[in-house]
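hiii, so i know i said id send this last week but things got crazy w the move. better late than never?? heres the sequnce for the chain we talked about at the cafe, plus the structure i predicted for it. fair warning i was half asleep when i ran it
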Amino acid sequence: MIGQRLGAYRVLARLGRGGMGAVFLAQTDDGERVAVKVLEATLEVAPALLRRFGQEIDVLRRLEHPRIVAARSGVAEADGRYFYAMEFVRGRNLSQLIAEVGRLDPARAVALVRQALEGLAAAHAEGIVHRDLKGANILVDETGAPKICDFGLARAVDMTRLTLSGHVVGTPAYLSPEQANGEDGVPASDLYSMGVVLYELLTGRVPFRAESPLALIRMHADAEPEPPSAHRPGLPSAVDRLVLRALAKRPEDRFESAEAMGAALATLGAELEAGDAVDDDGEARPLEAVLRELVARETAEIEKAAAETLALPESPGAPAPPRAGGATAASPTVGATAAASTRGGVSAPARSRPAGASLAFAALAIGAIVAAIAVTRGPGADAAPRARLVLRDGSAPIEDVTVVEIRDGVVRFQRADGASIEELPRPSVERIEYADR
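okay and structure toks below
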């Protein structure tokens, strides 16, 4: 897949994995970077599956909001692969931030959730219920601004999601009580999940923990959560009251809407800014500074991976389709609304981190990923181009080889007169020169 063309996009690097397929960094001929989600090749491409695959991007194309990641295409098909393109966001998701820096300053946590609720309110206004809100599905770009991703995508591959009565209902740690009881999600269900996210940002942990997913689901349905201050002494009582209201068992006991919860958070945030700082051990670095450092580090990783791919000849793939072609029945045409509609989403990065995994938080987030930059063949299905490997240590180049693979920091190649595959550490190879270039 790496190095190949999917319609108008050349695939540069693997970013992560979503529920129904992998997410890649890709680039247009004009140099625009996007995140491309490709339907899992092992899944049978039935009409119902295509509809589920296109559900997220179709929903997001209806939305246009700075707190929601943007679509770049509808579902298209190229060389037998179904895919769609989304905004490429440089940053982290909230779950990753917690893992990196721990619990956040209360005022900053409140501000992040308040801003994310602006996007959620826009979705609810369109009749869209997310049903799987969590830290991994809220991305924070390098400026510190949150964006919601992964709207309503069915998880056909990700086994950490649960399906009750044939419907995906969410992630156990963030599941609302009504969803835990097998009911469909409603707008108040999203507010409950957002309350869990806020709890996690404030304390560094979710309100309920259990040894099994089913036990965790029952806790959401039946158990009362401890207030955040039980895990972070010194939090004002106003914080406890707001979070516990969001986590009320009955939907009608929560906030009336995302706007109402956002307004309450705005008031609370002002009180926190004006009041005494919460007495924590040490002084946390500003979130924006942490983000800049993390993004700079991983931008270097992904740019290195992309440069390695661009240095290789383009692998065969389907040619770019006409701007009005390539749509399936499940989705509008690729490019048909590119100018007027820049709506959509990117996947949240996976828990493990391949090169640049954290930089595309659109749509998705989920499962362990192996770091891979795989480019194997040059143009032509039958014969790969010959190449020479120029080494960094100044020793004689290795002439007349076929580059079989660049993966996991290793260049694998085969000499013209050899039957076995040899390998070198990628850093030891200064450049690869192809005979047809």
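btw The chain has three domains: 5-90+289-359, 97-287, 387-434. thought thatd interest u
miss u guys!!
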